[in-house]
């Protein structure tokens, strides 16, 4: 009797303890989609070369279904996918499926991806599953030491009503990226589909009616970049449509000596903005574009580390506008777009601290 009471107390205590989900058994982690892009999608994985087995966990800010899989080329046709969801009542639903085309994936006869656990809490769906590298099912793609094209999808709010999916169960979000699953490091040449980007633009300023204007605006890095180092692989201009003749060049500088009060649309560099902002034009130039220029792409395997602890939290952009005909009231929201990845292996390469992707 006493043992029974103890057991009951123990069980009660267990049910009251809310633990953060433990992903520590996974060796690798990457973010497939960010909160800003419609819902965080985190991937964890680990592999065992002896057992030739790979285990995954996905943690997705979605109350609906979650999809994950491998594709020959990052697109949906001929991809080997799993789709799972956690109904409000009952056990998680999870299937190894195959997408023949841009159509709801069908359930494989042979179920080689195996669910290890599934839960939904606080708007996050967590699924854990594993499979053999090679399954001997024509409807599965092998996991090899080569770069894999990983595809992901989810529906932010709604579970399917049946295991047989229809077009009504279409994803609300999807994407793809290249990952070396058995090396744990990203592909040397990042797949543009898998890159995040960050726009540094002014917001609806009026181009002054003078021949030439140097416009200065200060920006604070978003929290997601301030707190974690990202790796810029490419940048290029985002010029407001119709303003191509006015936007002459764009320069982005890192900036240390300013604070939140300086952030905003700015103004004419030498007359309208505080000297602290103007002074940043003497600092580190990280991106430059001038009319006639193209996107700048870092060489394969090279990127520019950006953000994270100790990195300047502010940027200053100088926009050079031309307006010889003195056209009035041209509204502009131009600037620079930086593409970045979130994982890299660092090495020192002289003055520019380059990183190896
Ligand atoms: C921001 O910088 C300005 C100019 O250097 C300074 O006067 C002001 O006190 C600073 N504000 C904050 C909140 O740090």
How many runs of DSSP E, i.e. beta strands?
26
Q: What is the helical fraction, as a range of percent? A: under 10%
What small-molecule ligands were found? Answer: 2-acetamido-2-deoxy-beta-D-glucopyranose
**Average of pLDDT:** 86
Give the number of domains: 2
Number of contiguous helices: 4
Keywords: Membrane, Monooxygenase, Oxidoreductase, Signal
Main location: membrane
Domain DOMON: 39-155
Signal peptide: 1-19
Describe this protein's structure.
It contains four helices and 26 strands. It is mostly beta strands and 357 residues long. It starts with a helix and ends with a strand. β25 (345-346) and β26 form a beta hairpin. The chain has two domains: 22-179, Immunoglobulin-like (Sandwich), CATH 2.60.40; 196-348, Jelly Rolls (Sandwich), CATH 2.60.120.310. The strands form five sheets. The protein has a seven-stranded antiparallel beta sheet, with no helix packed on it. Strands 13, 16, 20, 21, 24, 25 and 26 form a seven-stranded antiparallel beta sheet that branches. A five-stranded antiparallel beta sheet has the order 1-2-3-9-8, with no helix packed on it. It has helices spanning 2-16, 223-226, 269-272, 275-279, and strands at 28-33, 41-48, 53-60, 66-71, 79-85, 93-99, 106-107, 114-121, 124-132, 148-154, 173-180, 185-186, 196-201, 205-206, 212-220, 230-238, 247-255, 267-268, 285-290, 296-297, 302-306, 314-322, 331-332, 335-341, 345-346, 355-356. Residues 259, 261, 276 line the site of 2-acetamido-2-deoxy-beta-D-glucopyranose (NAG). 2-acetamido-2-deoxy-beta-D-glucopyranose binds at residues 259, 261, 276.
């Amino acid at each position: 009797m006493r043992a029974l009471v103890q057991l009951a107390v123990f069980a009660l205590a267990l049910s009251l303890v809310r633990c953060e989900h433990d992903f520590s058994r996974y060796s690798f982690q990457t973010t497939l989609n960010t909160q800003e892009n419609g819902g965080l999608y985190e991937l964890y994985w680990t592999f065992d070369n002896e057992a030739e087995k790979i285990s995954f966990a996905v943690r997705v800010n979605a109350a609906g279904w979650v999809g994950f899989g491998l594709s020959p080329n990052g697109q949906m046709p001929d991809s080997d996918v799993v789709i799972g969801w956690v109904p409000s009542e009952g056990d998680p639903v999870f299937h190894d499926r195959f997408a023949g085309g841009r159509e709801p994936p069908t359930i494989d006869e042979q179920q080689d991806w195996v669910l290890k656990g599934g839960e939904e809490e606080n708007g996050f769906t967590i699924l854990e599953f594993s499979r053999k590298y090679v399954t001997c099912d024509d409807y599965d793609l092998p996991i090899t030491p080569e770069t894999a094209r990983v595809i992901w999808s989810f529906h932010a709010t709604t579970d399917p009503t049946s295991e047989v999916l229809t077009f009504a169960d279409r994803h609300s979000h999807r994407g793809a990226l290249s990952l070396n699953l058995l090396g744990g490091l990203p592909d040397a040449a990042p797949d543009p589909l898998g890159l995040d980007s960050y726009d540094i633009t002014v917001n609806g300023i009026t181009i002054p009616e003078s021949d030439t204007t140097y416009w200065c605006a200060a920006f604070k890095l978003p929290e997601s970049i301030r707190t974690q180092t990202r790796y810029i692989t490419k940048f290029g201009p985002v010029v407001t449509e119709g303003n191509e003749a006015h936007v002459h060049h764009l320069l982005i500088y890192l900036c240390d000596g300013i604070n939140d009060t300086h952030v905003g649309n700015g103004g004419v560099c030498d007359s309208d903005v505080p000297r602290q902002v103007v002074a940043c034009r003497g600092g580190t130039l990280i991106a430059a574009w001038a009319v006639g220029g193209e996107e700048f792409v870092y060489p394969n395997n090279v990127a520019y580390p950006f953000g994270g602890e100790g990195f300047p939290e502010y940027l200053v952009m100088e926009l050079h506008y031309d307006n010889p005909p003195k056209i009035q009231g041209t509204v502009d929201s131009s600037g620079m777009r930086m593409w970045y990845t979130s994982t890299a292996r660092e090495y020192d390469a002289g003055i520019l601290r380059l990183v190896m992707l």
